[in-house]
# Entry
Amino acid sequence: MSYVNPAIRPQFDSMPAELREHILQLGIKLDTMADLMGCLERIVAEGDGNGAR
# Structure
């Protein structure tokens, strides 16, 4: 189950709906902006075919 800390919820909510849904489907916990940035970097890496995790 995904979790987004209320402290970073405004930044999360400002992202496109498709991206938010993708992040929520990953089932990860986002407590800090660093967590969110790491998640976005992972998505970009997967999209580039690097498969970094």
Residues 1 and 10 are 20 Å apart (CA to CA). The longest strand covers residues 3-4. The chain has a mean pLDDT of 92.
